[in-house]
Amino acid sequence: MYSMDYDGLNALYEDLTRFVNEMVDDIKNAKDIVDKMNNKDHWKGNGYDGYQKKFSALASRFGEYCNEMYKLNNNIKSSIERMKVIDAQVAYNLRNMQ
User: What is the pLDDT of residue 2?
Assistant: First the structure.
């Protein structure tokens, strides 16, 4: 079985936060690139409009996904705080039993 201490859980929280932040930045950068492709050098005919519309929808849904990831990641942080309270209560009870 695998176990993790507070430092490991905090590192996991920080890593996930950083990864999601990077994903948010990446999708914004990709959308900026797609938005700048609206010229005749890249597209002939009306293909760009359909592509841009689909990509904008994807970017919008991706933002919703990242928001859910932030919420789930915050569960790690709140779990750490709850575990610290429980650990302190257990330690207190053990000291007072002697």
Answer: 64
